[in-house]
Design goal:
heterotetramer, A: five-stranded mixed sheet, 25% helix, B: 157 residues, alpha+beta, four-stranded mixed sheet, 9 strands, 33% helix
Chain lengths: 83, 157, 157, 83
């Protein structure tokens, strides 16, 4: 699975992109976040304010219960501020 | 109907007259062109800023902008749309975004323009970081007012 | 505060980029620029037109446009307004009118732009005559929809 | 008094500008229109559809009961169609 991080999530995680093997039993965005928080203190800090984290699966906005598979591209980022 | 939306994400500046000419070239069925240009302001929260950096999610950005443009074209029966958003390093006074919408009459052109910028601000994956005169940097917080403005248009499909 | 409205009635065309540059030159307090351009359409009531003539009431035109601009600046707290209206002989595809309004945030800029063109269409003394492909000519009738659009903003002082 | 006519009112009257001496007793726009209709068949035709005639006194929009004097500039025209 390809993971992307943007803006302050990228800065807290320490990099903008990583590949992970999705553990068996993790099937939703919410479960993925819980698992990712254990990967490093940076990951834990990035997801500490869950209310401010947005997610896209394969370039479409997703919700905590969106189903994911090992072939998906999952991106995490703050609320957008363009324009 | 050919695809009437031009979507561009670039670091370079844009020229409004050139973009209008490109959008309307050879046509005599257009009655009005609405436009919005977003510009980097020199202060944020009352503090002077010296620079702004625009980050985006390549791929998803173009996908989100195309979807927003298609929605606007259908909803307001627009004859054409241009969306250009800059990324990278910008300075106060620099252009950030250009929205153009054309239609036979002014109401559709102006409503389409407002819809496009309202939705772009809440659905397109761009993030702004400001550098202040004292050397500190901060990511811009999303404004609740932007979400409220977009919600006024109802749900985006 | 210096007079922030530029009012021009001219037969020549205008360049939108040049006018935006003139309106915003040297400023870093502007966050958004709204714009509307009205264009001569090639048909009227389904009939092809070959030319349009714009007549106006010199003196009163500038007075009416200045009043409309002042109202918009006060009502929407605009940082600047440009109103350029062409007169004389025009052809399909030609620009007729340019409205620019700038403000710290986009809502004021876009609402100001809509207010300006709605009021210009009902209060500024211009009249359009269309020449059809068959050689006949006719003065354009005022649209009740334009009065209704202007009334939505309430009374103009 | 200076009178101005625009668009199809100008075409029907036959000229865009004329000077008239305001007769004693005529004090409002409505009275002026009634008097002008007697000046020529063109004037009569120009004001035949009163509902479509707009008036400005000294470059400000006026109404039928607006008071006028011999020193005023009075303009007649159809509903505006600019923009």
């Amino acid at each position: 699975m390809k993971l992307l991080y943007f803006a302050w999530l990228r800065e807290r995680v320490g990099h903008g992109e990583e590949s992970v093997a999705l553990p068996v039993g993790i099937t939703t965005v919410a479960e993925l976040i819980t698992w990712l928080r254990g990967r490093s203190p940076g990951h834990d800090m990035a997801f500490a304010h869950g209310r401010l984290v947005r997610c896209a699966v394969n370039e479409d906005f997703a919700t905590p219960d969106t189903v994911i598979t090992d072939r998906d591209e999952v991106a995490f980022f703050p609320p957008v501020t363009g324009g | 109907m050919a695809d009437p939306a031009l979507i561009v994400v670039q670091s370079a500046d844009f020229n409004v007259s050139d973009e209008i000419a490109r959008l309307t070239a050879g046509r005599t069925d257009i009655g009005g062109i609405g436009s919005f240009i977003g510009v980097v302001r020199g202060t944020a929260g009352g503090r002077p800023i010296t620079a702004m950096t625009l980050e985006h999610y390549p791929g998803m950005t173009e996908r989100a902008l195309s979807r927003i443009a298609d929605q606007a074209i259908t909803r307001f029966d627009l004859q054409g749309v241009t969306l250009i958003h800059r990324v990278g390093a910008l300075a106060p006074g620099d252009n950030i975004v250009l929205v153009l919408a054309c239609a036979p009459h002014r109401k559709a052109a102006l409503d389409g323009t407002a819809f496009l910028i309202d939705w772009l601000k809440t659905r397109a994956p761009f993030w702004k970081k400001e550098r202040f005169a004292d050397g500190t940097e901060a990511w811009v917080d999303a404004r609740e007012a932007d979400d409220a403005a977009a919600r006024l248009w109802g749900d985006l499909a």
